[in-house]
C-alpha cells in the first residue's frame, strides 16, 4: 500500500501488486498528495486483503486523562473512501472492543494527546486487529458516536482546549441503541461506484421531519457543486433502539431526500443498506466490488415491484392528463368546453427496454390499474407539483419522486432509490410511433470521452501514435483525485482534443482513433 504521509480521505493512496503498479502508484500518489495536502511525501505499508475497517474514537485532556468512546464500523468504501458508517460494529465482541479501546487510549496517552481523535484499525476475520493510523481531528462520521454515547464531541473538544479536565470516566461511556451514517455525495454511482458530478442544486429538501433522522450539511438550494472541492452534499444519520430500526429509518430517509440539479449516490446507498449481506453484517472493505463485480446497476426490480412501478407511472400519467383538462373560471367562459369522456385508459409503457400494456381507470384519488391480469389500486393526493409523493399501492406505502414529466410521455421516477425512465403512450400513439425513425447510436469504439468533469493533468499521446488497448491516453483530476483515461482498443491516434490544463466536462471528446 502506497500512501500519502499527510493524507486522508483515500487521497494519495494506491495498492501495488507488481513493479509496474508500484511505479504508477508512486506517480499518482505523489501528485495527488501534493495537490491535496501540499506535501508529496509517501509511506509504504503492508496491504491486508479483505479486512474490516474499524476505528476507535478517543478523547483526551491536558491532565493526562483519556477515554475510548466505542467503535465505528467503516468498511463500506469505494476508492479507499468511506461511504457508510455505523456504531457500534456488529462484528466486535466486548473483549475485542475493550482490547482495541485500551490500545487506542495507550497511544493517545503516549503522545500526550488532548482533544477528540480517532485511532483506525484493520480487523481480519479472526478479530486480529492492526494499527492503521491516527487522525488528530474530528472525523466526518463522529455523529454516530454521539448518538450511541450521548456525548457532544465538539463541546468536549472546546472544554479540553480551554483546559478543563474530562467530565466522564470510562465506566460512564455507554452503548445506547444503534446509529448509521450515509455520506451523500454529488457523484454518479453507475461509474466506478461514484465519479464526481457538478452542477447547481435547483431543489434541495432534507428529510429532517422523520423520527430519528439528523442531517449535517451546509448546502442550500442554488449551491454550486465544483470539481475542485469535496463532492459531499451531506452526512445523513439515523438512530434507533437497535440496528434494524436504524436501517429502516435510513431507508425512509433516503426515499424522502430531495436533491435536484446534480447526480447523487442515493441509489447506491439505499441498495447497500437493504442488501442481505450488509443486513447480516457480512462486510469488508471490498464489499462493493464483491457484491457488484460488474459495477453498480441500480435496484433490480422484482415482478411485484415492476408491477407497482407500472401502476404508479400510469396513474401519474392519467392524473396529469386529467389535470390538463381542468380550466379555471370555466363556468364564466363564453367558449363551451368539451371534455373527452374516457372510462379506461389503454396505455403502452416502455420500461427497461421492455414494452408493457396496462389499462387504468380512476375514481376520485384512487386509480385502478390492470397489469398482466392483476388489478392494483393506487391512491395518493396526486399533488403533481410536490417533490415527494406518498403513494399507496394495495396497502403498501411508497414514497416516490417524479423528477421529470414531458408532454411526449417521457417520465423519470425515483422508486426504491433508483431513477427509472419510462415512456408512456396511449394505445393510438403507440401504434403511430412504430412509423417513427429510430436515432442511430453513436459508435464509441474509436473515441474516448471524459466520464466526468475535471481538469486534464497530463496527455500521453499525440496524433500519429500507435496505442494499445488499456494504454494511458491522459490523466484527469477531479475532486483532487487523479484518474487515468485509457484506450478502449488498439489503433492509431487520429486526433487529440485536449491538453494539460484544460477543463473538461462529462462527455467531452478527448481523443479519436483512425
TrEMBL record:
Keywords: ATP-binding, Biotin, Ligase, Lipid degradation, Lipid metabolism, Magnesium, Manganese, Metal-binding, Mitochondrion, Nucleotide-binding, Transit peptide. Residues 1-293 form the Biotin carboxylation domain. GO terms for molecular function: ATP binding; metal ion binding; propionyl-CoA carboxylase activity. Coiled coil: none annotated. It is found in: Mitochondrion matrix. Pathway: Metabolic intermediate metabolism; propanoyl-CoA degradation; succinyl-CoA from propanoyl-CoA: step 1/3. Residues 1-162 form the ATP-grasp domain. The keyword Ligase applies. One of its GO terms (cellular component) is mitochondrial matrix. It holds the Pfam family Biotin_carb_C. Its main location: mitochondrion. InterPro entries: ATP-grasp (IPR011761), ATP_grasp_subdomain_1 (IPR013815), Biotin_BS (IPR001882), Biotin_carboxylase_complex (IPR050856), Biotin_carboxylation_dom (IPR011764), Biotin_COase_C (IPR005482), Biotin_lipoyl (IPR000089), CPAse_ATP-bd (IPR005479). Its EC number is 6.4.1.3. It catalyses: propanoyl-CoA + hydrogencarbonate + ATP = (S)-methylmalonyl-CoA + ADP + phosphate + H(+); butanoyl-CoA + hydrogencarbonate + ATP = (2S)-ethylmalonyl-CoA + ADP + phosphate + H(+). Residues 438-514 form the Lipoyl-binding domain. SUPFAM superfamilies: Glutathione synthetase ATP-binding domain-like, Rudiment single hybrid motif, Single hybrid motif. It comes from the Eukaryota. Gene3D superfamilies: 2.40.50.100, 3.30.700.30, ATP-grasp fold, A domain (3.30.1490.20), ATP-grasp fold, B domain (3.30.470.20). One of its GO terms (biological process) is lipid catabolic process. The keyword Amino-acid biosynthesis does not apply. Its cofactor is biotin. This is Propionyl-CoA carboxylase alpha chain, mitochondrial.
Amino acid at each position: 500500500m502506497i500512501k500519502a504521509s499527510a493524507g486522508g480521505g483515500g487521497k494519495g493512496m494506491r495498492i501495488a501488486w507488481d513493479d509496474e503498479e508500484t511505479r504508477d502508484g508512486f506517480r499518482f500518489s505523489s501528485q495527488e498528495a501534493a495537490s491535496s495536502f501540499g506535501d508529496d511525501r509517501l509511506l509504504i505499508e503492508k496491504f491486508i486483503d479483505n479486512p474490516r475497517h474499524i476505528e476507535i474514537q478517543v478523547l483526551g485532556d491536558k491532565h493526562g486523562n483519556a477515554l475510548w468512546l466505542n467503535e465505528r464500523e467503516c468498511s463500506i468504501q469505494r476508492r479507499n473512501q468511506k461511504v457508510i458508517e455505523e456504531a457500534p460494529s456488529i462484528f466486535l465482541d466486548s473483549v475485542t472492543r475493550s482490547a482495541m479501546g485500551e490500545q487506542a487510549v495507550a497511544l493517545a496517552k503516549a503522545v500526550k494527546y488532548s482533544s477528540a481523535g480517532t485511532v483506525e484499525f484493520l480487523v481480519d476475520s479472526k478479530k486480529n486487529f492492526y494499527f492503521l493510523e491516527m487522525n488528530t481531528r474530528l472525523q466526518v462520521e463522529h455523529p454516530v458516536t454521539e448518538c450511541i454515547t450521548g456525548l457532544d464531541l465538539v463541546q468536549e473538544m472546546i472544554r479540553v482546549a480551554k483546559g478543563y479536565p474530562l467530565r466522564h470516566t470510562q465506566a460512564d461511556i455507554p452503548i445506547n441503541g444503534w446509529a448509521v451514517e450515509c455520506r451523500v455525495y454529488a457523484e454518479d454511482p453507475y461509474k466506478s461506484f461514484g465519479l464526481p458530478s457538478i452542477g447547481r442544486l435547483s431543489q434541495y429538501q432534507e428529510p429532517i421531519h422523520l423520527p430519528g433522522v439528523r442531517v449535517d450539511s451546509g448546502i442550500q438550494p442554488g449551491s454550486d457543486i465544483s470539481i475542485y472541492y469535496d463532492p459531499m452534499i451531506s452526512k445523513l444519520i439515523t438512530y434507533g433502539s437497535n440496528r434494524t430500526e436504524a436501517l429502516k429509518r435510513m431507508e425512509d430517509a433516503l426515499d424522502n431526500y430531495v436533491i435536484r440539479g446534480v447526480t447523487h449516490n442515493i441509489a447506491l446507498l439505499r441498495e447497500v443498506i437493504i442488501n442481505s449481506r450488509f443486513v447480516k453484517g457480512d462486510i469488508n472493505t471490498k464489499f462493493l466490488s464483491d457484491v457488484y463485480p460488474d459495477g453498480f446497476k441500480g435496484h433490480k426490480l422484482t415482478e411485484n415491484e415492476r408491477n407497482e412501478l407500472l401502476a404508479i407511472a400510469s396513474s401519474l400519467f392519467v392524473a396529469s392528463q386529467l389535470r390538463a383538462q381542468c380550466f379555471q373560471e370555466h363556468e364564466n367562459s363564453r367558449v363551451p368546453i368539451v371534455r373527452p369522456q374516457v372510462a379506461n385508459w389503454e396505455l403502452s409503457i416502455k420500461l427497461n427496454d421492455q414494452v408493457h400494456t396496462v389499462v387504468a381507470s380512476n375514481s376520485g384519488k384512487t386509480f385502478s390499474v390492470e397489469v398482466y391480469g392483476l388489478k392494483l389500486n393506487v391512491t395518493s393526493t396526486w399533488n403533481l407539483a410536490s417533490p415527494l409523493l406518498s403513494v399507496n399501492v394495495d396497502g403498501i406505502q411508497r414514497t416516490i419522486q417524479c423528477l421529470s414529466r414531458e408532454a411526449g410521455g417521457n417520465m423519470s421516477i425515483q422508486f426504491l432509490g433508483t431513477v427509472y425512465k419510462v415512456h408512456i403512450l396511449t394505445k393510438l400513439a403507440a401504434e403511430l410511433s412504430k412509423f417513427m425513425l429510430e436515432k442511430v447510436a453513436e459508435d464509441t469504439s474509436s473515441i474516448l470521452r471524459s466520464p466526468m468533469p475535471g481538469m486534464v493533468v497530463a496527455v500521453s499521446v499525440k496524433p500519429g501514435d500507435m496505442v494499445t488497448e488499456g494504454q494511458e491516453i491522459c490523466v484527469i483530476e477531479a475532486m483532487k483525485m487523479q484518474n487515468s483515461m485509457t484506450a478502449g482498443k488498439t489503433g492509431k491516434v487520429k486526433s487529440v482534443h485536449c491538453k494539460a490544463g484544460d477543463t473538461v466536462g462529462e462527455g467531452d471528446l478527448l481523443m479519436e482513433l483512425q
